[in-house]
Design a protein that fits this description.
heterodimer; A: about 600 residues; mainly alpha; about 5% strand; elongated; B: about 200 residues; 5 strands
């Protein structure tokens, strides 16, 4: 088979996969819609008797009180304070549209309407009638008007959760179909290309896609409520402000992640990627199980440190698997696949975690995390090939890389103006301040999860779009600077007007800003490296950038927790916003006032 | 063929998991909704009775001296024959008036603790408890000067709610089976189509 025919075949096969993903996604949406319709009907039928009883209780109570007054000689037309009396029922029973007391002739003597219900809008109500009896027979009647769509309206918060589950399911469909299609296409291509290929070299992106997705999903289930869990835990460290205490487990996680990630690259040769993934998984799974029994902050810190090690080892193992087994020269695409899968898993885990925490409790979520992570291990045993592979390797950062980067003004400007502030913003605002600020505003774990989900959804959808736009732009620095200013400025909204809504809007804008910055800042970094003309510069700058952004996140989070302890959450949010925006403005001004060789 | 089988299995499994997750969520919502609804209703029953006792107290009677106490409670119980008991108790938890299966001379510890929190203003003046196969909703009875003089608790068996929850679970499961089966069949059809197209690509 000719190369052209093979490439055409692969392209057609991938086109079929994409269409399959689309159709199966539509099918899932239709299935959920159908189930939703059936569910509303079930709710209406099952709750009908209880709603009847509530209406009967209201009607009989009003009827009894009215009969007592009539028995005391007060005529039905001469009651006072009826509006307040009926209003008390309307505020107590949200299903009520209106209440009315009628005379024996059927004329309405008194009536009260629920907030937002007009007098002529009650034709839609289900009306229950109750007689007002006196010694000489029926003297009037009571109308209890119940909202026909009450059950449906009460299912709105359920609809939000169903929406989240559906979106997560679509992401899972996407990942699953793509993973298995890639394996089909990959095997067919390899069969055509190589009759014999060593076991260590076999593999495709499909081998780790589901494994990594499931692992990230399991890892991130607790993201939306972790600060709330730490806040509620015992604090055996005396004299430390609660806001600082809450940040410690997150800092422990970031610290061990920063240390484990560079080490993981070196461990691949010893364990192979699959082996290293399983080692990382053992750390992560044991930490999740441990969280079920942890009840104080020190224990949680230790366990989150284990999670950081596990996450670092497992994700780098997957990255190495891809890099060493993909065709040479496809590094950028490979890293793109890796990042997209991680974000997909993080998105799904964050969104589901909040819903599960609200319904089943924090401990159950950690048990689920444990089993999901174990499930990813089973998949790894089935799908990942053994051995270490022989392709490219990720560059482990060294002190020399750091000093090389720090000697370049352009790199320092990018790191200090955009990369590090944006990472501090992500760690301190999204993981630490959003849950705390929203919980303070009365939001539950699912609402916090839905808000965090917005960020990852924007990154998931916006990332590729920005990538395409950036290819056409000649001023990446402008894109990066504006994205960073936007993300920083967005935080002023919840800082000045703290509420669940303003936090959600800020998270959305931070997502847009981050989506704008993520890809282009890597391209800028590579351009800075290329300006030096050394082949190794590219790896050095990227490795140093990763290490410095993690270090920055860690220190930034510590500073933000001190700010929160000293001045409150809103000031901390505002401080991150102002710092990020000012740093980005300095970056833009510095870039505008110079014409460096690395300009793009 | 093996990977195709895996794809069928995973996607059909996903359809089942998706529908099961929706059914689970709906069931949790239903039980919470039902429990909340029943508790609110029982609180109203308790509050209405408390008003009647309050009227007697305003006339100068103490809570144990309300002679038609049982009649007041009987009238309240008539709202719903499923109500297991309605109990009026004093500040120490001693039962003063009761209808139905009150189960002793003192209210249980859970009720007394909820009453203590309510009367000391730590929680709302109303409360709900759930224990030993029953749910209880209560209110504080106040004297002429707003001081707490006792409490009223309405108890309801959880068996009926459990039956309703069971019926709902069966209905949701049935719907789920239908939807998951339909989804699985359609997924299978789509994958078969994809397989034949991929075979066509390979052949060409």
């Amino acid at each position: 088979m000719s190369t052209i025919a093979r490439i055409e075949g692969e392209a057609r096969a991938q086109d079929i996969s994409r269409k399959l993903v689309l159709w199966i996604s539509l099918l899932m949406v239709a299935g959920v819609a159908l189930y939703g319709v059936l569910m509303v009907s079930d709710f209406n039928r099952s709750l009908g008797p209880e709603l009847d009883r509530r209406a009967a209780l209201i009607g009989e109570t009003i009827s009894n009180d009215t009969e007592r007054a009539v028995a005391l000689g007060i005529p039905l037309e001469g009651f006072v304070g009826v509006d307040a009396y009926l209003g008390s029922f309307l505020s107590e029973f949200p299903e009520l549209d209106y209440l009315a007391i009628r005379s024996a002739d059927g004329d309405v003597l008194y009536s009260a309407y629920a907030h937002g219900v007009e007098e002529d809008g009650v034709a839609e109500s289900v009306v229950y009638g109750f007689a007002i009896d006196a010694e000489d027979g029926e003297v009037g009647s009571i109308d209890v008007g119940v909202d026909r769509h009450f059950v449906r309206s009460r299912l709105q918060d359920l609809a939000l959760d169903v929406g989240v589950i559906l979106i997560v399911a679509l992401v899972v469909v996407f990942e699953t179909t793509l993973a298995l299609s890639e394996r089909i296409v990959g095997r067919r291509s390899r069969r055509v290309r190589h009759a014999a290929v060593s076991a260590a070299q076999r593999g495709s992106a499909g081998d780790i896609r589901l494994v990594l997705f499931l692992f990230a999903l399991g890892e991130e289930l607790s993201k939306s409520f972790l600060p709330l869990l730490i806040q509620a835990a015992d604090n055996p460290i005396p004299g430390l402000d609660p806001n600082i205490v809450i940040s410690l487990p997150i800092i422990a996680y970031l610290l061990t992640l920063a240390v484990a990630s560079p080490l993981a690259g070196r461990l691949v040769d010893a364990f192979g990627q699959r082996g290293l993934f399983l080692v990382g998984l053992a750390f992560a799974a044991s930490s999740h199980l441990g969280m079920v029994f942890a009840d104080n902050v020190v224990q949680i810190m230790g366990l989150r440190a284990l999670t950081g090690i596990g996450y670092g080892l497992a994700t780098i193992a997957c990255q190495e698997y891809l890099l060493r087994r993909m065709a040479p020269g496809r590094r950028a695409k490979t890293i793109g696949v890796f990042v997209a899968v991680i974000i997909g898993g993080t998105f799904a885990g964050t969104a589901l975690g909040g819903i599960l925490a609200d319904r089943l409790g924090y401990d159950t979520v950690f048990v689920i995390s444990f089993f999901v992570v174990l499930g990813s291990g089973l998949l790894a045993l089935t799908m990942m090939q053994p051995g270490a592979g022989s392709g490219e390797r990720a560059r482990a950062v060294s002190l020399r890389d750091m000093t090389t980067v720090m000697r370049r003004p352009a790199a320092v400007l990018l790191l200090g103006g955009v990369t590090i502030p944006m990472n501090v913003l992500m760690a301190a605002f999204l993981w630490y301040l959003v849950p705390l600020t929203m919980a303070a505003a009365g939001s539950d774990a699912s609402s916090i999860a839905r808000t965090l989900m917005i960020y990852y959804l924007v990154i998931l959808i916006g990332g590729p779009l920005v990538g395409k736009a950036a290819d056409r732009l000649h001023s990446l620095w402008l894109l990066v600077g504006i994205g960073s200013v936007l993300a920083g400025a967005a935080l002023l909204l919840p800082a000045l007007l703290p509420s669940a809504l303003t936090v959600s809007i800020a998270v959305l804008l931070v997502g847009v800003g981050h989506a704008t910055v993520r890809g282009p800042q890597v391209a800028l970094a590579l351009d800075i490296a290329d300006a030096e003309g050394e082949e190794s510069s590219r790896d050095s700058i990227l490795a140093a950038m990763r290490a410095l952004e993690r270090l920055g996140s860690l220190l930034g989070l510590l500073v933000v927790s001190l700010l929160a302890a000293g001045f409150g959450l809103n000031v901390a949010v505002g401080a991150i916003g102002v710092t990020t925006a000012v740093a980005a403005i300095v970056f833009l001004i510095a870039r505008l006032s110079s014409t460096p060789r690395w300009a793009t | 063929v093996r990977i195709f089988g895996q794809l069928v299995l995973v996607l059909c499994g996903l359809a089942v998991v998706l529908v099961a997750a929706l059914a689970g969520l709906a069931q949790l919502k239903f039980t919470a909704f039902l429990a909340e609804s029943v508790a609110e209703r029982l609180e109203i029953v308790a509050a209405t009775s408390a008003q009647d006792f309050g009227a007697a107290i305003d006339l100068g009677l103490s809570l144990p001296e309300v002679a038609n106490g049982t009649a007041i409670l009987d009238r309240a119980r008539a709202h719903d024959p499923e109500i297991r008991s309605i109990v009026v108790f004093d500040l120490e938890g001693n039962v003063l008036h009761a209808v139905g299966d009150a189960g002793g001379n003192r209210v249980d510890d859970e009720t007394l603790e909820a009453f203590r929190l309510a009367r000391s203003g730590i929680s709302d003046a109303r409360w709900s408890t759930e224990a030993d196969g029953k749910v209880g909703s209560g209110v504080v009875v106040e004297g002429s000067f707003g001081q707490p003089v006792g409490g009223i608790v309405v108890e309801y068996p959880t068996t009926e709610m459990q039956q309703q929850a069971g019926l709902m679970a069966r209905q949701l499961a049935l719907d789920g089976v239908v939807v998951a089966a339909a989804l699985s069949i359609l997924v299978l059809l789509m994958l078969s189509l994809m397989r034949s197209r991929l075979a066509g690509v390979e052949a060409s």
